[in-house]
Structure formats: C-alpha cells, structure tokens
From TrEMBL:
<protein>
    <recommendedName>
        <fullName>Multiple C2 and transmembrane domain-containing protein 1</fullName>
    </recommendedName>
</protein>
<dbReference type="GO" id="GO:0030672">
    <property type="term" value="C:synaptic vesicle membrane"/>
</dbReference>
<dbReference type="GO" id="GO:0005509">
    <property type="term" value="F:calcium ion binding"/>
</dbReference>
<dbReference type="Pfam" id="PF00168">
    <property type="entry name" value="C2"/>
</dbReference>
<keyword id="KW-1133">Transmembrane helix</keyword>
<dbReference type="GO" id="GO:0055037">
    <property type="term" value="C:recycling endosome"/>
</dbReference>
<keyword id="KW-0256">Endoplasmic reticulum</keyword>
<keyword id="KW-0967">Endosome</keyword>
<feature type="domain" description="C2">
    <location>
        <begin position="1"/>
        <end position="118"/>
    </location>
</feature>
<dbReference type="InterPro" id="IPR035892">
    <property type="entry name" value="C2_domain_sf"/>
</dbReference>
<feature type="transmembrane region" description="Helical">
    <location>
        <begin position="673"/>
        <end position="701"/>
    </location>
</feature>
<keyword id="KW-0472">Membrane</keyword>
<dbReference type="InterPro" id="IPR013583">
    <property type="entry name" value="MCTP_C"/>
</dbReference>
<comment type="similarity">
    <text>Belongs to the MCTP family.</text>
</comment>
<keyword id="KW-0968">Cytoplasmic vesicle</keyword>
<keyword id="KW-0677">Repeat</keyword>
<keyword id="KW-0770">Synapse</keyword>
Length: 738
C-alpha cells in the first residue's frame, strides 16, 4: 500500500510502528496565570496511549513562552490522538494544571509539514479561555517499513498464491507458514504470510530470512562510541558567588548519560567515560548539554554542543574542544569509534559453542595467554532462550473470555539489549533463540524479561529473572521462576534457559578494580515512604553492629566475664607489644578463612534476610498505589515541598547502608569469586608489608600519585578498593538476584 499523500480516511487500521511524527513545539499564546504575581512558569507534556513521550523545558514567568523545541515520536496507531497538556511549574508543590488539547493524527496529510494551533481547555471549566499552543507537525511512514513493503511486493508478484490477512492468522491451519518480527530500535512490527501450497514455501522462507536479517540489523549495533569527558574551561557563572556547580548530559538516540556534579567551579575536572551503541552506518549526532545544579529550584542551562560522528574516523581517538553554544566556555572530550562487539542473534541450530572449531577459538581468545590483550573483553556469554510455561494471561478476548498472551522475551546485559520474536495467543511459547554477548564485567547480572505485546499501547510486563554471571552453571538447561518487577517475589510462569559463560579470570580480576560501566539514565528518583524507611532500617542495622562491638569491648574492660576479659587482656598485650602493619590484612585474611571454614563445615551463620524481603514487598505495594493515584491532587502532595532534600537523604542512607553491607558480604562469602579475590589481595598485601618497610611502600605510593597525571594526562581517576566493593552486592541486591 502506498501511504504517501493519503487522506485521513486511508489510514490502515493500525500498523504498529509504521509512522514517525516530528513535532516542533513553537510557542504559547495568552496562557492562563496560575501564580500570585499574575504569571506562570509553563511547560508542556505530550502523551500517547496514556504514556508521557515528551516534556519541554520550563519557561519562567511568561504567559507567551517561546520553546522552539523538537521531538520525534514513533506512532504505533495513527488513530490514537496525541494529548498535549500544559502545566505551571511550582517547586516542591503539585504543579498547577493550565489546560490541555489533543491532536487528531488522522487529520494530518502524510509527508507534509503542517502548522497547528490548539486551543487549551479544562474539562472542569470548558468555557474558560486558557490560551493556545502553536505546533509544527510532520507525519511520515518509517523508512524501514517502506523497505519491508517493497520486499513483500516483489515476493507477492512472484507468487499470486501468497496472501496476507492479519485477522485470520491466529486461526490458520498448521500447514500455513507465518512469521512476525518486532524491532525495538525502529519500533517496526510486521506480521506476515500464509502459504497454503508447498511450492511457495521456498519463496516465503527466503522472504522470512531477508526480513529476519533486517530485524537483526535494526537491533544490533554497528559499533561502540566511547566518550571520555575530560574537563570544562571557563564556563559561565550561574550562581551569586560567581561560580557554578556544573554537570553534563549526553544523548545519542534513546541512549542517555549524566555526569557527576563538580561543585563551585568554572573549570570542572570530570574524567568520566561513557559508551554508546552506534546503530547507523553513517554515524549519528551526540547532543551534549551543560547544566548548573541548583538545590531547591530548576537547574540552570549553561550551554550546549554537538558531536557529529560521521566526520570522525574509526579506530582512532579524537581529542575535541567543543565551544558551547548559547553560553560561554568549552568542553574537552576524547571520542573513539570502534567496531561492534560480538553480539549476535541466531536460531538454536546455529550455536557458536556447539561448533568445535568456533568453541576452540573462543576458548583461545580467553585463555591465560591473552590475559593482557584487550582488557575490556573479559569473556563470552551465550544465552539460549528455549521456552516458557504457564505464563500470566494478559489479554481477554472473545465471547467466552478466552485468556491469552502474546509473549516476547527481552535479554539484557548491562546496556546491551536484544529480544526474541513474538509468539501469539500462547501461554506456553517456544522461542528457541540464541543470544551472544561480550562480557565487559564478570560481576554483571543477566536480566531476562517476558512481556506481552500489545498493539495499541506499551507492552505488558509478565515476569523477569535476574541471574549473576558468576552463579551460572555452564551448559545446564534450567527452569527459572519468573518474578515481579522488583524481583521481590514470584509471579506466574517459568522460563527455560541454557547459559554458557567463558571468561578470563585474570582480566576479570583486573577489571574488578576499574570503574563500573554506567547504566543509561533511568527515571528520576521519587520520594517513597517505604524506601526511606527501608534505608533508615538498613543504616540502623549497620550502626547497631558497631554499637554491639563497642559494648562487647566495654564488657571486656568491665570484667563481666573474667575468663573472656583475661584472654582479651593477654591478647591486647601480645598484639600491642609485637604489632606490625602486616597484621591488619592478616587479621582480615583470618576472618575470611574462618567464615569459609564455617560454610564448608555446614555451620553457615548467614541468615536469610526476611526483614528486607518484607520491606521490598511493602514498597512494591506502595508503588502500585502511587501509580493509581498519580493524577490525583490532595493534601499529601503539598507535603512534598522538600522532596528533593528528602530524596537526597534517602539516597545517602542507601549509599551508607550499602557500603556497610558490601563489606559484610565480602567476608560472608556471598560472592565466592570476590572473596577469593580478596584472599589473594590480602595475602599479597600481608607478604609485602611483612618484607618491605613501610617507608618504601609510602614512597612508591607517593611517587605514583605525583607522576600519574604526567604519565597519563587523561587518565580517569578511580579508587580500586571502592571499585572492588561496588561489585559486592548489598543485602537488597542479594535478595533480588537470588
């Protein structure tokens, strides 16, 4: 079907992901005043299918704001209107509603830019004049969908017996061959083919193969873009003290990162690294914005710049000094484009590890002989997604209320994300797909999530499992019980996976002492009473351990138990009289060995943390209530005036509690690989401190610190001990991943 130039009556009944809507939010006119001073601080939200797809910046104290912001939205169903809502920003309080409107996409002519003026209305006061919003919109079919359509046409011309009818696909006989492809990166969803005669199978199989290649091409990235944020120079002062608290946001397509905040400086030093996936052969554009952090109010915009990746040569590091537009100063970056990592999707019949030659090559690549080659390539992961059973029914259709689901599976390892095809109307789907990943950190957690595909709205969650790579038993097909979103309890169904991990232990150990890969920017933290209480209790438990230790020592001083106090006194005299620095790591080494002995002998003193589990379940229930009441206004919303401060305290409690729990879990052998690594490190430190005088160790340390920036000007600062502890799970993470 040629969709170019069609009218609103010619739209298909909803082909998911077929359209792209480019919107330019121009300005507002005569908006309603919501503040005491007779003005407003307006911003705009675009919603599609009940989900927010765009939010503009806030224009302060202006009833005729000018935004000139652009947004690109992928449309699943053009018959679903786009809702535009305008709010007045109130710091710490519930934002005031100004007005709303909706845009009927079927009224737009395809491939033609249209200027639209929308009058804002309030459903409760339909007669009030609340102003208007001016937009420029362009609705067009997706390019990848055109390519698929042309491919289908050619195949149909070769065989008139190939027919297509979506409505009858679920009821077709088993002899019919059909296939469906879903691509998250291009939001293209295609349901294809019924072949009623055997002579057409070859034609359709070729078509399926070519479409599968297109599907994989849209999912798999062509390369990795590594961006190192070095520093900023002579940035604009945004605070009253003549300084700023700058941080940087990066965006490449749907991938987002945010740097740390450097307080009170116009020449910040960040030295942070971020990795992006590059999906397009011709490159892309990284949008970079610099902001000044302001506690208690909207962050100030400092400036922006862009990096056009198509102008940079590959396999080479480029040092860029990017002047900031709409601001002052510049950013210094290092940008490197490298070839794609070995990430693949294939059927069960094509397995890298089952091919003896390929398996030997993979084992050779991660053998001890290659321990110092390509330190970022730690290992190889192969995931076989076989099938699922007894899934939750997400859809109810028909006169008999027949329950079903249309499940597909998403496999994630850090920022690498791939997915299977969809199996329709089935609670026991079989995917039989193989995914391979490069492992950059052996302490990563593999996440496998099952969703129900829904043509008219976002996919429904069916279940999830999280599997630490170090806990995987190679080559064993295992049934994993699906859990809820928070991984705190089971949901309905199981999924069958077979996972293989091959890695270089030396590389994995060295990478453990390097900074952890950052995840893409996720949703902003929100205030949660249960989360705040949970973090407070965790913090209290850590402090109580120290208090109990202090009471124990005090009881020795008070001779509450004479035998114990006498033993402690003699030990004290012996240690103080013979103390050497090597005794500190030796004591920690003995503690690790003692706990390992208890575990091996069956006297494990680790307790299952039911308290944390109960708190996580309460938190999940609270999240459900918050989702239902998110649109309601009430007195409680007014109590969130200090939300940012509360969230900061909440996160600080989480960090402190996690730090204490990570130390405890290192000695408790929660992750044996890390505990063994600690034993090796402590043994080495003990030997060094025993044989090498302390003054020489301090001298080497000082020389290294003083000369580090001279030897490597753009080295990223890190603390090996903190990087090690970041790999040790906290009590909450232990509950979620086991």
């Amino acid at each position: 079907t040629n969709l170019v130039g069609t009218s609103n009556a010619d739209f298909p009944s909803g082909d998911p992901g077929m359209y792209q809507l480019d919107i330019t939010l121009r300005r507002g006119q005569n908006l309603a005043a919501r503040d005491r001073g007779g003005t407003s601080d307006p911003y705009v939200k675009f919603k599609l299918g009940g989900k927010e797809v765009f939010r503009s910046k806030t224009i302060h104290k202006n009833l005729n704001p000018v935004w000139e912001e652009k947004a690109c939205i992928l449309i699943d169903n053009p018959r679903e209107p786009l809702y535009i809502k305008v709010f007045d920003y109130d710091f710490g309080l519930q934002d005031d509603f100004i007005g709303s409107a909706f845009l009927d996409l079927t009224s737009l002519e395809l491939n033609r830019q249209t200027d639209v003026t929308l009058s804002l209305k309030d459903p409760h006061y339909p007669d009030h004049d609340l102003g208007s919003i001016l937009l420029s919109v362009l609705l067009a079919p997706r390019e990848e969908q055109r390519e698929v359509t042309m491919l289908m046409r050619k195949s149909w011309k070769r065989s008139s017996k190939v027919t297509f009818n979506y409505d009858v696909l679920p009821n077709m006989p088993s002899s019919c061959l059909w296939h469906r492809i879903y691509s998250p990166s291009s939001c293209v969803l295609m349901t294809l083919f019924c072949v009623s005669s055997n002579q057409n199978h070859e034609t359709v199989e070729l078509l399926i193969l070519r479409l599968s290649d297109l599907h994989r091409k849209s999912q798999l990235w062509r390369g990795i873009v590594s961006v190192t944020l070095i520093e900023g120079r002579e940035l604009k002062a945004m605070d009253a003290n003549g300084l700023s608290d700058p941080y940087v946001k990066f965006r490449l397509g749907h991938q987002k990162y945010k740097s740390k905040i450097v307080p009170k400086t116009l020449n910040p030093q960040w030295r942070e690294q971020f990795d992006f996936h590059l999906y397009e052969e011709r490159g892309g554009i990284i949008d970079i914005t610099v902001w000044d952090k302001d506690a208690g109010k909207k962050d100030d915009f400092i400036g922006r710049c862009q990096v056009d990746l198509s102008t940079l040569s590959k396999e080479q590091t480029h040092k860029l000094e990017m002047p900031l537009e709409e601001g002052e100063g510049c950013l210094v970056l290092l940008v490197t484009l490298t070839a794609s990592a070995a990430v693949t999707i294939s059927d069960l019949s094509v397995s890298s590890l089952e091919d003896q030659k390929e398996r030997e090559e993979i084992l050779k690549r991660y053998s001890p002989m290659t321990m110092f080659h390509n330190m970022k390539d730690v290992g190889f992961l192969q995931v076989k997604v076989i099938r699922a059973e007894a899934l939750m029914a997400a859809d109810v259709t028909g006169k008999d209320s027949f329950s079903k689901s249309d499940p597909f599976c998403v496999v994630e390892l850090n920022n690498d994300r791939l997915l299977t095809h969809t199996v329709y109307k089935n609670l026991n789907p079989e995917w039989n797909k193989i995914f391979t990943f490069n492992i950059k950190d052996i302490h990563s957690v593999l996440e496998v999530t099952v969703y129900d595909e829904d043509r008219d709205r976002s996919a429904d969650f069916l279940g999830k499992v999280a599997i630490p790579l170090l806990s995987i038993q190679n080559g064993e097909q295992k049934a994993y019980v699906l859990k809820n979103k928070q991984l705190t309890g089971p949901t309905k169904g199981v999924i069958y996976l077979e996972i293989d991990v091959i890695f270089n232990a030396v590389k994995a150990s060295i990478r453990t002492l390097m900074p952890k890969e950052q995840k893409y920017i996720e949703e902003e933290n929100r205030l949660s009473k249960q989360l705040l209480l949970r973090n407070f209790i965790r913090m209290k438990r850590c402090i109580m351990v120290l208090i109990s230790a202090a009471y124990y020592i005090s009881s020795c001083f008070d001779w509450d138990s004479p035998p114990r106090s006498l033993a402690a006194f003699l030990l004290f005299l012996f240690v103080v009289w013979n103390f050497e620095l090597y005794m500190i790591p030796l004591a920690l080494l003995l503690l690790l060995a003692w706990n390992y002995f208890l575990i091996v002998s069956g006297k494990d003193n680790r307790q299952h943390d039911t308290v944390v589990e109960d708190m996580l379940e309460d938190e999940e229930e609270e999240d459900d209530r918050d989702d239902k009441d998110s649109e309601k206004k009430g007195f409680m919303n007014r109590l969130y005036a200090i939300q940012e401060v509360c969230v900061s305290v909440q996160n600080m409690l989480d960090e402190v509690a996690s730090f204490g729990e990570r130390i405890k879990n290192t000695f408790n052998w929660t992750v044996p690989f890390l505990s063994w690594l600690a034993i090796v490190a402590l043994s080495v430190f003990t030997i060094i401190l025993y044989f090498v005088p302390l003054r020489y160790i301090v001298l080497v340390w000082g020389i290294n610190k003083f000369t580090k920036k001279l030897r490597s000007p753009y080295a990223i600062d890190n603390n090996e001990l903190l990087d090690f502890l970041s790999r040790v799970p906290s009590d909450v993470q232990v509950v979620c991943i086991h």
